[in-house]
Amino acid sequence: MAALAGLAHQAKQLEKITAQLTDACQQDSPNIILIEPMKDTVNEIHHTVFETLNQATRSKREPSDAIKAVEEEVSGLLNKFTDGLSQDTFQNPQALRTMRKTLKELSAKAEEMQDEWAKLAKKAAKANGGSRPVAPNMAGGKSKGPKVEDKPMTIEDALSMLVDKRTTKWQGGLVGIVHAAGVQEMTPISAHTPGRFEFVFAPKSQAAWNLHTYATMV
After folding, report:
1. How many alpha carbons fall within 13 Å on the CB side of residue 164?
2. In the 8-state DSSP scheme, what is residue 145?
3. Which pLDDT score, from 0 to 100, does residue 170 have?
4. Is residue 6 located within the same domain as residue 107?
5. Is the same domain home to 2 and 108?
6. Quick one: DSSP state of residue 152?
7. What residues does the Ketoreductase (KR) domain cover (predicted)?
8. Dmax of the chain from CA atoms?
9. Taking 70 as the threshold, does the pLDDT of residue 208 lie above it?
C-alpha cells in the first residue's frame, strides 16, 4: 500500500536526520545548545511516525483524504528540514532557530497524522465488531456487556485470574519484582559509541544486579 511506503520512507528520513544531528553533537559544535534539543525532538517525531506506521499496518484500510493531506504536509516539512541541514547550518545560530520552527511544525503535523490514523483504526475495529462492550460501564448507566457480579475481589481471586488456577493461594511475603527501569536513546547502530551503549545498558544491568542482591535479604 502506497500509504505504508510513504510512512516507511518518512521513518528512514528521520533516521538519517538523527544520525546527522548526532554527528553534529559529537563534533562539539559551539551551537550544541540548539542542536541537542532538535535531536531530541526528531527522536520523538520518529517514534510518532513509527507508531503511526504500526497503526496503519494493523488497520488494513486505505487512508482517508484527511490522512493523505496531512501525510503530504509531513513529507513536505521533512524535505524542507532535510534540505536545510548542512555543516554551514550547524555553524549558523539563526539558521538553526529557523530549522527549529520547521521542526515544531513537523512535530505537530506528525501527531495530527497519528490521530487521523487512530480514528481510521477505530472505525475499522467498530466495523469488525471489535468495539462491543465486554464489561459494565463503570461511570454508571446500563451496559450491554456481560453481567458481572458486583463484589470485592480478594488477592487470591486476582492471582487465580492471572494464572488461571483456582488453587493459587497467596502466602504473604515477596512474590516477585518488576524491573522496569530504562533509558531511551534512539540512536542508529552505526552511530553508537561505547559511552552511549553504557548509558542505555547500565540502568538495566546494574539495577538488575542490585535487585538480585538485595532481594536475597527479603
Report:
1. 0
2. S
3. 54
4. yes
5. yes
6. P
7. 155-214
8. 69
9. yes
pLDDT of 135:
41
The C-alpha cell that represents 197 in the structure block? 551503549
For residue 85, pLDDT over 90 is answered with no
Q: How far apart are CA 150 and CA 55, in angstroms?
A: 35
Are 99 and 81 in contact, with CB atoms under 8 Å apart?
A: yes
CA 210 to CA 214: how far, in whole Å?
Answer: 6
Whether 108 shows a pLDDT value over 90: the answer reads yes
Q: Can you list the alpha helix ranges (DSSP code H) found in 60-91? A: 65-84, 87-90
Instruction: Assess whether pLDDT exceeds 70 at residue 191.
Output: yes
- Separation of alpha carbons 16 and 35, rounded Å: 15
In a domain, 132, yes or no: no
- Cell triple for residue 2? 502506497
Per the structure, the complete domain to which residue 188 belongs is given by: 179-217
Q: How many domains does the chain fold into?
A: 2
In tens, the pLDDT along 115-160 reads 888 888 787 777 766 544 444 443 444 444 444 455 566 666 666 6
What is the separation, in whole angstroms, between the first and last Cα of the chain? 55
Distances (CA, A) of 65 to 18, 50, 71, 80: 30, 21, 10, 23
